[in-house]
Amino acid sequence: MSGPPTGKSGFAATLRRLPSAQKSAQGAPAYSRFVNRRAGGVLAAAAYQLGLTPNAVTAVSAAFTFAGIAGIALVEPSVTSGLLVCAALVLGYALDAADGQLARLRGGGSASGEWLDHIVDAAKISALHLAVLLAWYRFFELPESYLLVPLGFQVVAVVLFFGMTLNDQLRRVKGVPRAASGTPSTIRSVLVVPTDYGVLCLAFLVLGFRDIFTVVYCLLFLANTAFLVAALRKWFLDMARLDTAGRTAEGTDNG
Fold this sequence. Notes:
Layout: H1 7-17, H2 30-50, H3 54-74, H4 79-105, H5 111-139, H6 148-173, H7 186-191, H8 197-203, H9 210-254
């Protein structure tokens, strides 16, 4: 098999192929849909030209992400550290969008690649809020009760991630793929933007302004908690409908 096209024309041709390598934007928050996915597409095209594998891109994504997380926990907050942390997290997130697009450009993903991607996602979601907890404990002069916020945010973020992943897996088991038809709602994408991991990454721009960061982080926690409460009810009803559809199909087959 010949390698990927090289040179400027090859990169342009790869960019033109990107729409066919995109997942559905259904339900995606605004930053992930309009900014991160496009940035990831450019990075995927560049990685394709360089002959990188999706797993290599995942590894680079993890390196940037965990460097940013380490910076939160270990470096005293300042304007400079906030900019560097934000840049590392944003680039890590863009590369996280690139690995899947690269896999589809190369003809399809693998079970091991999907596993690695999800493991890195689970680790970063857990570690990020623990890093905020350490930063608040070490560098912020806050009442001790505030330390419950990053702990609560970690629980909310992990349950959201696990819930969305489990929903997709159960749909696959039931043979019901995630709906991809129709035009994704721009209004919904904007309304759920506080739940966007990319927006959380951007929040670290103000890490050096401790009072502002504290307020922004707490507001994001409240918004994510409210979204989770509403989402859990909807997801349970969705799974109940899958059960009903499965029993109906089984009854039809038996009949």
